[in-house]
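Box 3.1. Reading complex inputs
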Amino acid sequence: MIALIGMGMCAAFLVAKILLIWISVEKSIAYGLAGAAAILAIVLLMPLAFYNLDILAGARSMLGKSILTFYGFLSGYFFGSVLKKKVAS
Amino acid sequence: MIRKFNMLLLTALFALHIHSEETGYQYENIAENLSHPWGIAVIDENNILFTELTGSLRIIEGGVLNLKPIGGVPDVLFAGQGGLSGLILDPEFLLNQKLYLAFSSPDENQKKNTLEVISAKLIAGNLTEVKTIFKASPSRDTAAHYGARMVFLDDGTLLITSGDGFNYRERAQYLDNHFGKIIRINTDGSIPEDNPFINHKNAKPEIWSYGHRNLQGIVVVKGVVYENEHGPMGGDELNIIEPSKNYGWPAITYGKDYSGATISPFTKKEGMEQPIKYWVPSIAPSGMAFYDGSLFPEWKNSLFISALVPGDVRRLEISNSKVISEEILFSDLGRVRDIATSPDGSLILVTDGPKGKLVRVVKK
């Protein structure tokens, strides 16, 4: 599970790095997309790690995976917004 | 000073006395270095059959492990929790050499798999007359929660536990599939005419009870069917099973999901059965045996449940369908996968893992 979360974080860092350095995009959006990438990586890799089992029951359907990914985006967006405010102050 | 020493000595002797009373048994290794041993069937005190999840059916003959596995065992899917699992002898085994095996079997295209039960005759170290008598439907993508334990009812019909396949939990509440069910069939694979849902439209006629999760132990004691099953995180259950009853999973549960999420806010609901005991946190119950031997009179009429987490055996005393006491035994063996009683009154334990053991518990 820790390895899985680690892979999710790797995906998030990669997305954030690409968006923030190579493409001009608002910081909160970049963190949002990074959060979405992390969750998407976790829910897609999870069955491969656990004998086709979706340990997070909410991720068993495509709809569930999409909703979780969306919440990943919201979490990242919130983080980016807070960070932006702190830097500004 | 001498008085202090005497007191210490007395205390030590008293502690030793209590310890020897508490552990009035000892272990004898029957076989070791076994590859994920799972199910056990005792022919007599010196002849024991057992399955290895990796796909072998093995035999202890005259108290010694035969190094050659039994031949003729069908191919099994050894993955996740799947493999060669449940084993039971026909009630007339000594006359007909018939036995039954439950295992995860891959579909033809190897993409899906399901729980399968076969009957076969054990003749000269080989299975013959192998016949599939049950295949759970539909097949699953996952390699978990098969159930795969069996027991005979007094009328000669066979009960088979069929798990919810992990990803298919909601289907345990529907009768159009075999996920999370107890199945009742005749030993030739036909369906008994008095099965509770045989005349139900859209119901699988083999279903005897439903609303189960991962059923790992089942025994019949004086006509009463006891079944244990894994909850998720917490909520392992011991149930008394009656035909047509709904045991609630996942609509009611005392457990939480592995992520910590609530599976259901309900623990009770009308029309759904309550366990006679549940465990929070989980003990991961596995095999189950009723002890009516005479070697350990203090254990007579107890229900023994082997457990995987942290690894021990629970001795339960049951009166009027209620568990009145629970004692933890054999907690120094690690994960215990199955338990059986031997005609000589000893208990036989199966320890889990790639270097599993068969251990006999005898009087000290």
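In summary: The interface with chain A takes residues 79-81, 141-144, 166-167, 169, 257-259, 261, 263 of chain B (CB under 8 Å).
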